[in-house]
Write a structure and sequence with these properties.
The structure holds 2 protein chains of 2 kinds.
Chain A lengths: L2 E5 L2 E4 L5 E8 L5 E7 L5 E9 L2 E4 L5 E7 L2 E6 L8 E8 L11 E2 L3 E5 L1
Chain B lengths: L3 E4 L2 E5 L4 E7 L3 E9 L5 E7 L2 E5 L2 E6 L4 E6 L8 E9 L5 E3 L3 E6 L1
Parallel strand pairs in B: 2-11
Antiparallel strand pairs in B: 1-3, 3-8, 4-5, 4-9, 6-7, 7-8, 9-10, 9-11
The chains are: A mainly beta, B mainly beta.
């Protein structure tokens, strides 16, 4: 069966510090991968998606970046965090093919990031 | 503009009540998703549908393409159903889901 892992579960970081959040998927090959952010009191916002190793599409221009060094590994990074980066970050995967949104997305447990 | 609106924003009911959560969208869609976000933040996909009706246990999702509207129903609601329910639409020609703001459901025993 497929599982998706995210870590850390919670993170408190000072403004200006770097960030690295990791997501890994097990039990499937060549998945579509997604990073979402949910700010306090707001809906989910797609940040990045990837259809393959090294292939990253950005939805929102910001100080975050994403990388996919391996087929089932997706990393969200920042060189310098802003206060506005605080939120709940969710990684998700879906089966490739059929286009985004036409297949069930499976979400990880999320990372709650607080930038002080 | 591709938009998704949910109503109500908050819903409190007693155990056993029949629950309906509504989702309206602005233009034609390829697929609509219903998600459940637990108090701890974890999200589970409940349904994905493009027409008609789907049922899983006490949960039923319907969609009316002509009216651009979907509903999520919960029969015989239980306190463990308390969560935020989110609908998300894949608009025709788009490559990403657009999410509603969510409906916070609280079921009291």
């Amino acid at each position: 069966s497929q599982t998706i892992h995210q870590w850390p579960a919670t993170l408190v970081q000072p403004v200006g510090s770097p960030l690295s959040l990791e997501c890994t998927v097990e039990g499937t090959s060549n998945p579509n991968l997604y990073w979402y952010r949910q700010a306090a009191g707001r809906g989910l916002q797609l940040l990045f998606y990837s259809v393959g190793i090294g292939q990253i599409s950005s939805e929102v221009p910001q100080n975050l970046s994403a990388s996919r060094p391996q087929d089932r590994q997706f990393i969200l990074s920042s060189k310098k965090l802003l206060l506005s980066d605080s939120g709940f970050y969710l990684c998700a995967w879906s089966n490739i093919g059929g286009g985004f949104g036409t297949d069930t997305q499976y979400f990880g447990p999320g990372t709650r990031l607080t930038v002080l | 503009k591709n938009e998704v609106e949910q109503s109500p924003q908050n819903l409190t009911a007693q155990e056993g009540e029949f629950i309906t959560i509504n989702c309206s969208y602005s233009v034609g869609i390829s697929a609509l998703h219903w998600l459940q976000q637990h108090p701890g933040g974890g999200i589970v996909s409940l349904f994905m549908l493009s027409s008609g009706k789907k049922k899983h246990g006490r949960l039923i999702a319907t969609i009316n393409i002509q009216e651009k509207h979907s509903s999520l129903h919960i029969t015989a609601s239980h306190p463990r159903d308390s969560a935020v329910y989110i609908c998300a639409a894949l608009f025709q020609g788009a490559q990403k889901l657009v999410f509603g703001q969510g409906t916070r459901l609280t079921i009291n025993p």
